[in-house]
């Protein structure tokens, strides 16, 4: 069992990074790796080389192949990210656009249709939202985000859906409430991964 934590926030002092550290600690002594996309300078731009690789199902750029190797080592993937406009940040979306590609994450052709390829991976989500739980419920924001990521990306590639744990009201002035939200989210994700370890 090996967990890959992927974070997308440019501020190393952010709540995202605090949650990342808490989650890593909660998963130890298990095998854990962190991919801090901003710190590592991952380029999210989908280039002509990416487009060729997508259509050909191979000959991926070197930085994409490095991410493939990281994901191939992982049994669990956790995406830790602030919610921007009811979705993930552009950096994380660009990582998915470039890394979860035809020929690796799935295979698709007019003749054979879709063949998902990430069945070895369980994907968990830890979105950090500025809005409160009530607003997410009233407007369907959580449902929309989960449909987009869990169904549109995770299911499409054949990855097993893991736990999803939102932290709400991340920009409020009550540190106690934020800590409780972090504690809850870290507990949900870490317990889900530990439960898989025990299987």
From TrEMBL:
A Pfam family found in this protein is Flavodoxin_2
Q: What is the lineage of its organism?
A: Bacteria, Bacillati, Actinomycetota, Actinomycetes, Kitasatosporales
Keyword Oxidoreductase found: yes
The UniProt record lists the Flavodoxin-like fold domain at: 1-171
Q: Does the keyword Cell membrane apply?
A: no
Q: What is this protein called?
A: NAD(P)H dehydrogenase
Q: Which UniProt keywords apply?
A: Oxidoreductase
Q: Which family does it belong to?
A: Belongs to the NAD(P)H dehydrogenase (quinone) family.
């Amino acid at each position: 069992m090996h967990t890959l934590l992927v974070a997308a926030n440019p501020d190393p002092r952010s709540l995202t990074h605090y949650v990342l550290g808490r989650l890593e600690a909660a998963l130890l002594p298990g095998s854990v790796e962190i991919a801090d996309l901003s710190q590592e300078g991952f380029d999210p731009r989908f280039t002509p080389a990416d487009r060729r690789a997508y259509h050909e199902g191979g000959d991926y750029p070197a930085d994409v192949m490095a991410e493939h190797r990281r994901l191939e080592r992982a049994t669990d993937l956790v995406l830790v990210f602030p919610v921007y406009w009811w979705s993930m940040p552009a950096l994380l979306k660009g990582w998915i656009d470039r890394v979860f590609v035809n020929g690796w994450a799935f295979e698709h052709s007019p003749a054979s249709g879709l063949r998902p390829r990430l069945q070895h991976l369980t994907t968990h989500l830890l979105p950090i939202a500025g809005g409160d739980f009530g607003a997410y419920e009233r407007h369907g924001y959580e449902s929309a985000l989960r449909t987009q990521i869990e169904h549109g990306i995770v299911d499409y590639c054949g990855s097993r859906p893991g736990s999803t744990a939102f932290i709400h009201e991340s920009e409020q002035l009550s540190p106690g409430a934020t800590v409780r939200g972090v504690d809850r989210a870290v507990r949900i994700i870490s317990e889900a991964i530990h439960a898989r370890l025990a299987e």
